[in-house]
Amino acid sequence: MPFTYIDILIGVFVVVGIFFIVRSIRQVPQGYNYTVERFGRYVRTLRPGLNFIVPVIDGVGARMNMMEQVLDVPTQEVITRDNASVSADGVAFYQVLDASRAAYEVRGLENAILNLTVTNIRSVMGSMDLDEVLSKRDDINERILRVVDEAAASWGVKMTRIEIKDIAPPADLVQAMGRQMKAERDKRANILEAEGLRAAEILKAEGQKQSQILKAEGEREAAFREAEARERLAEAEAMATRVVSDAISQGNVQAINYFVAQKYVDALGQIASAPNQKVIMLPVEATSVLGSLGGVGEIWRELFNGGDPRAARPTPPRPMPAAPARPAGVPPVVPGHPGEGDGQ
C-alpha cells in the first residue's frame, strides 16, 4: 500500500514532536544546578531532578557544582614584619550558593578564589612578627577567612574554612630558635630553683621562729609555776613559823625544840647528800640530836593527847652504850665514812 502525502506529513510531525520532547527534558543530578540561557541570556536555574525547557530557544549554560569543595593553596614565600622569611601553604573550603552569580559574575571561579587566598595569606602574615606567625595560627586563619569571604560573597560563594597547613622557617632560623628556647628554659629552671630555695629558707626561718616562740612560752609557764610554788612554800613556812610563834608565846618550850630539830635534820641531810663528801664530821653529840627528836615526839604527843601537858612530859633519853674496846692497830670508825664490812 503506497504512502500518501498526508501519511508522510503525519510521520514528519511525529518525528519532530519526539525530537522536541527529548530536547525539552533535562535531568539535573543531586548537588548540581544548571543555568538556562535563552538566545544567550540567562533566564533561570534548573534544580536537581526532572526539568523542562523550550527546545531550540532555550539551552543549558553552566553546570555548577553546589557541594562544598576543597581548593589546595600551593606553598609560597612570606616575609614577616621582622624580616624573617617563611614558607606557608594551606587549604581553602568553599561552597557555591548562587549558581547564576558564580557562573556569570566571575570568570574562572577556582582561580579567582586561589589568587585571593594567596594574596591575603601574604598580607596577614606579613603584618605579624615571626613569633606571632608561629604561635597564632588560629588568628591567621580567622583573619584570612574573613577577608576572602567578604570578597567572594559578590560571586555567590561562601568561604567555609581556610587553614594554614604548614609554616616552615629557614634551617638556620630554626636552629637559632632552638638555642633561644633552650636558653629560656634554662632561665626558667634557674628562677624556679632560686624560688624553691627562697621558699625553703623562709619555711625554715618560720619554723625556727615558731620553735623559739614555743620555747619562750614554755619557759615563761615554767617560771610562773616555779614562782607560784615558791610562793606557796613561803606561805607554808610563814604559817609554820606563825604556829611555832604562837606556841612559844603560850609558854610551850617543845615548839622551840621542834623548830630547832627540823632545821638541824635538814642541815645534816644536805651535808650527807653532797657528792664530794666522803667523811662527815659531827661537831655535836648524838644525844643532842636524840634529845631534839624527843622534843618533836613530845609535841606530837601533845597534839594527839588533846593538849594534856602531863601526857606530853618528855621521857629522859637513854644513855648511849659505850663503844666496845677496839683492838690495837684498828683505826677508829668515823660516822658517815665507810668502814669495815661495807664492801668498799
For the largest beta sheet, what order do the strands appear in spatially? Answer: 3-2-5
Proper CATH architecture of the largest domain: 2-Layer Sandwich
Query: What's the helical proportion of residues?
Result: 40-55%
Rg, Å, rounded = 63 Å
Report the portion of residues in β strands: 15-25%
How many angstroms does the end-to-end distance come to?
Answer: 172 Å
CATH topology of the largest domain: Tetrahydropterin Synthase, Chain A
Can you describe this structure?
This protein is an alpha+beta fold and 344 residues long. It has four domains: 5-65, no CATH class; 69-169, Band 7 domain (Tetrahydropterin Synthase, Chain A); 171-245; 252-274 and 282-318, no CATH class. 53% of the residues lie in helices and 19% in strands. The strands form three sheets. Strands 3-2-5 form a three-stranded antiparallel beta sheet. The longest helix has 79 residues, at 171-249. The chain is rod-shaped and about 185 Å long. Mean pLDDT is 79; it is low at 307-344.
What labels describe this entry?
344 residues; alpha+beta; 19% strand; Tetrahydropterin Synthase, Chain A; three-stranded antiparallel β-sheet; 53% helix; single chain
Layout: helices, strands, pairs:
Layout: H1 5-24, E1 25-28, E2 32-38, E3 41-46, E4 49-52, E5 58-65, E6 69-79, E7 85-96, H2 99-104, H3 109-126, H4 130-135, H5 137-152, E8 157-168, H6 171-249, H7 254-272, H8 286-304
Antiparallel strand pairs: 1-4, 2-3, 2-5, 6-7, 7-8
Helix pairs in contact: 3-5, 6-7, 7-8
